TrEMBL record:
PANTHER family for the chain: CERAMIDE SYNTHASE 4 (PTHR12560:SF6), LONGEVITY ASSURANCE FACTOR 1 LAG1 (PTHR12560)
Subcellular location: Endoplasmic reticulum membrane; Nucleus
Chief subcellular location: endoplasmic reticulum
Ranges where the Homeobox domain occurs: 80-124
Species this protein is from: Nothobranchius furzeri
Its membrane topology: Multi-pass membrane protein
UniProt protein name: Ceramide synthase 4
Reactions that this protein is recorded to catalyse: sphinganine + octadecanoyl-CoA = N-(octadecanoyl)-sphinganine + CoA + H(+)
Annotated InterPro entries: HD, Homeodomain-like_sf, Lag1/Lac1-like, TLC-dom
Gene that encodes it: LOC107384166
Region Disordered, residue ranges: 338-366
Pathway connected to this protein: Sphingolipid metabolism; Lipid metabolism; sphingolipid metabolism
DNA-binding interval(s): 82-125
Amino acid sequence: KYLNLWREDYWLPPGVTWGDMEQLVDTERPQPHDLLMALPLALGFVALRYAFERFLAPPMGRCLGVKNTVHVTAAPSLQLESFYTQRSKQPTQREIIHLMLACGKTQRQIETWFRRRRNQDRPSRTKKFAEAAWRFFFYLAAFMAGLACLVDRPWFWDHRECWRRYPVQPMERAHFWYYMLELGFYGSLLLRISVDIKRKDFKEQVIHHLATIYLLSFSYCANYIRIGTLVMLLHDSSDILLESAKMFNYGTGWRKMCDSLFVVFAVVFLVTRLVIFPSKIIRNTLLLSMEAFEPFPGYYFFNILLMVLQVLHIFWACLILRMVCKFLKGKLEKDERSDEESGVEEEEEEKGGEENTDQGGDCYWGKSKDNLNSKISMLTNSCVLNNLNHHRSSVAKRMRKAQ
C-alpha cells in the first residue's frame, strides 16, 4: 500500500519518473520525509506563542488601551450549574419552566443567571488581542521573508517559468524553510484548535487550515515549489492587515485607525483573493501547466484544493462586503469580521443590550426594538404564569382526590 501511494502516475506527469528527479542533488530535491520537520516546528511555534502571549502581548495591549469587560458573576447554584455544565448552556422555554419549579426562581432570574454564566466563559479582550498580535507578527515576518526570496526570481514575474523544465527544478534553501515554517505554523493552529477562540467561521477556518496543509504537503512532494511559494505569499499579504485591524479594534480610542485598516484590508482581500488568485494562480495551474505536461491525478488533486480555497475566499468576501455596506451606511455597530465569535456570543450582546435598557441606559437597538422586546417579554411571562397556574391547579385537584 505504501508503494502504491508513491506511484509515479499519481504524483508526476505522464512520461516523468522519480528517476528524473534524481538528476538534482539531495539538497536541491524535495524529499517526502522532509515534511516530518513540520511537526517539531509546530510544537516550537506553540511554545513560542505561549511565551509571546504571556510576556510580550500584555504590555503591547496596555499601550493600545486594551481593557477587559467586567462581567457580573453568576450567583452560586448547584442545580443551575449542573444543568449548565451537563446539559445545555442555553435552556429552552420548557427547560426554564422546569428549572423555575426546581429552584424556586423567576424566569428573569433564570435567564439572567445563564446569561451571566455564559459571559464568564467568554474569552477576554486581552486574550483575543494576544492571539491577533501573534498572528500579525507571524504573517508580517512570513510575507517579508517570502517577498525577499521571490521578488528576483523569474517565476514571480513570468508564471510560465513555474513549469519550465518541470519537475527537474532545483529547490533553493530559502524556499525550503519558507515551506517548512508555513507548514509548522498551520500545524500549530490545528494543535491549539481546542483551546483557541471559537469564531463564527470556525468550521471554515478548520477546512482552510486542513486544505492549506494538504496543499503545501502535496506541492512540496511533487516539486510544485514555485507555484506553492506564490500561493503562500498572496495569502499572507491580506492576513497582515486583518490581524492589525483586530489589534486596534480591541484597543481603546483607535476606532479611526481600525476602520482605516479594515477598509484597506477589504480592498486588498477582494483584489488578491477574488481577482489575482483565480486569474493568475488558478489559471496558471489549470491552463498554463498544460503547456508543459498532460493532466494526471496529482494535477486534479492540486487544483481541487485550490478550488476549495477559492470557495472559502468567496464565503469570507461576502462577510466583508456586508461589513463594507454597513460601514458606508454608518450603521456599523457590530463587528462581522472574522474575529467575530459564534452566534451564541452574538446573542449575549443583544441580551446585554436589553438588560441595559431595562436599567435606563442607552443602547443601539432603538425604541421600536425595545417596544418589541417588552411585548415579547410580557407574552412569555404570561405563558409561563399560565403554565404554572395550570400545574398548581392540577396538583391541588390530585391532593383533594387523595384526601
